[in-house]
Amino acid sequence: MTESRRDFLKATALTTAGAALGLGFDAAADDKLTAASRLTDAQGQYALPPLPYDYKALEPVIDETTVRLHHDVHHKAYVDGANNALKQLAAARADGNFALVKHWSRELAFHGSGHVLHTLYWTSLTPSPGGEPKGDLSKAIAADFGDLAKLKAHLTKATVAVEASGWGVLAYQALDRRLTVLQAEKHQDLTVWGATPLLVIDVWEHAYYLKYQSKRADYVAAVWDILDWTAAGLRFEAARSAAR
Ligand SMILES: [Fe+2]
């Protein structure tokens, strides 16, 4: 790993309630991707990162209106919700009144996870896909799933089958050093402690309904054409390094 990449990965490490996620990109990738991976601003508040591409850059797979609403309205709401939960929990500590600690803990888990997952989502997609997974990620996919086709079948089926709203997730489980496919209901349920997401697919209806209506499977199938395996490979590299 080059020094610049190590610095980059360190600078862009994501941390949220109960989860530490490595998110990084090749040093050759542009600064937009670095900015797009930051969860917080200079003051340490959660902040909405800019998209690493234009609103219409993912067309025809995902239309401009969907991306605009999804990023500017939905993702922003999770940022605001996470900041509010932190503020309310700080107030509870200040006055010693923890009567609503369960509520605000749940709010932090929901909105904080929503912020992390959407940040990962925008950087799991690219208008310039570089083809199939490469390097160590490709080897790990072969070892843990058989081959890319089997991973694709597994991740696609798991994502389409998410009950109600949620996510399909390719993750690295550091505890047993293996790749795994997860479903996340809402943003925070059915996840596994210790798993670092490498690539996520949003299947809340706001991610696809304007264009695909009830055809979630068509959306998931199309998204495979714009997955950023370079970003996933770098997150894998960071997660494995952290596990050593
Ligand atoms: Fe979403």
Structure, explained:
The chain is α+β, with helices and mostly antiparallel strands and 244 residues long. The chain has two domains: 3-122, Helix Hairpins; 135-243, minor pseudopilin epsh fold. The protein has nine helices and five strands, in the order H-E-E-H-H-H-H-H-E-E-E-H-H-H. The chain has helices at residues 3-11, 31-36, 64-95, 101-122, 135-145, 148-160, 209-212, 216-223, 229-243; strands spanning 14-16, 19-21, 166-173, 178-185, 195-202. A hairpin with a 4-residue loop joins strand 3 (166-173) and strand 4 (178-185). Bound molecules: fe (ii) ion (FE2). The site of fe (ii) ion (FE2) has 7 residues, from helix 3. Fe (ii) ion is lined by residues 70, 74, 118, 202, 204, 206-207.
